[in-house]
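Quick one:
INPUT:
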């Protein structure tokens, strides 16, 4: 039984390491650059990426800062936190490397408000929410987006 627990922990280490490597490659950052940005040694980061070491929450936070992604996304991947209720869309927002933390939070807040509205109001409000977020002709802005602010 202990062996299966050890194997599960090792799998988590490989999973988080692979996820960090994918995020690093997406951000076009070298291993050496990320190690410097995160304040960890190059060999240690390499061991994390290869699944040989399982980083602490503090190290994950430093790596997330270096990657300019949410530490929460790394915590979920590492099994420290459970996946947030918003599912894949919320995860995509949280891990988007080209958004600031403030932009991510605003998007998550708007998304959650739509979800609450649709849950509380029933099916009638779902149609309204969809109409407001659908792209206009040829992917252009919607009529909702063209309205001047009041």
């Amino acid at each position: 039984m202990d062996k299966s627990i050890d194997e599960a922990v090792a799998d988590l280490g490989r999973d988080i390491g692979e996820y960090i490597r994918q995020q690093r490659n997406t951000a076009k950052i070298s291993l050496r650059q990320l190690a410097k940005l995160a304040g960890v040694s190059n060999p240690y980061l390499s061991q994390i990426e290869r699944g040989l070491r399982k980083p602490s929450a503090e190290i994950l936070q430093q790596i997330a800062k270096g990657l300019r992604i949410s530490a929460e996304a790394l915590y979920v991947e590492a099994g420290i936190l459970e996946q947030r209720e918003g599912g894949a869309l919320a995860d995509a927002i949280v891990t988007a490397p080209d958004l600031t933390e403030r932009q991510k939070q605003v998007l998550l807040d708007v998304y959650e408000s739509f979800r609450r509205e649709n849950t509380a109001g029933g099916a009638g409000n779902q149609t309204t929410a969809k109409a407001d977020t659908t792209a206009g002709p040829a992917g252009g802005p919607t009529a909702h987006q063209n309205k001047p602010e009041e």
